[in-house]
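=== RUN LOG ===
request id: a7f3
mode: sequence -> structure
chains: 1
length: 312
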Amino acid sequence: MHVDFTLLERSALYGLLADNSDDIIFKCDARGFIVSATPALAGLGVNLPSLLFGPHLRDLVAGVHADAIMVEHCAALNGRAAALWLEFPAMAGGWFQIRMGQLCDRAGNAYGVLCVMRSVTERKTLEDRLFTAELTDPLTRLTNRVAFTAMLDHLIANGAEGCLALFDLDHFMTLNMHYGHSAGDALLRGFADLLGNMTRTDDILSRLGGERFAVLMPQIDPLSAREVCEPVIETIAALGHGSLDCALTASCGVTEIGRSTDNTVRRAELALFLAKAKGRSRVEIGASEGAARPITRPARSANFLAFERAFA
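=== RESULT ===
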């Protein structure tokens, strides 16, 4: 059934919707100045009735997003049929989305733009939390393997110099089985805290899975990186000495960040394997990019040769 509202009825209906909606509805002139708005605009710190001149649309928007908002205002004023929802941070705080439509007089001449704004802060906060969760190890709160790979890719793409250090808790599975998963989880959290306290402020820490941890160390050479990592190895050995039936130690492999992620990780893993093969609880520096083998190696066992072939 078609309902025909009179002008007064439509005005009353608009007022009812405007006063009881969280949406902010306002009208801009052709230059982008706000000339009228629903009371909800006060939520952005704008008390329009008390102002001699209304604020400009740009005044509501934080940062570089103001340019995109004005492009959309111009498109709406020129009569673009498909209005878009644009998201932006507000100058008063929070995130909003806005949609605009052309206003025309009886002769069809555009004289302004009608805008609808609504808060999306709660959704943006949830999205940020989900994004963080996707890139965070839930046990240690360090970044996970996905984030580590992306960060290493970024460093390599920008030609950054530095080192990658891989840490591995020795005999972790034995400790986990003997003392239980709760004790194993506590050990992993404790080692993550130890890394955070003993590495540099600019270093980037990740848990790659299991008992394997990675530290991206920008702007450092391998020898200096080893000097940072050795106290970590010594501290974990000292903390674990005498407190468990079996020794609590960690091993570490260090290598320069190279020209590819795969090659850098491969060389760090070879250095870590070398540290374990030489008795564990130590730091070994891997070969520089282009070198075929680590310079120093223990006697070649069958397992060692198999490992080399797998990463050749």
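=== NOTES ===
The beta strands are 24-29, 34-37, 86-89, 95-104, 110-119, 162-169, 204-209, 212-218, 250-256, 283-285.
The mean pLDDT is 83.
=== END ===
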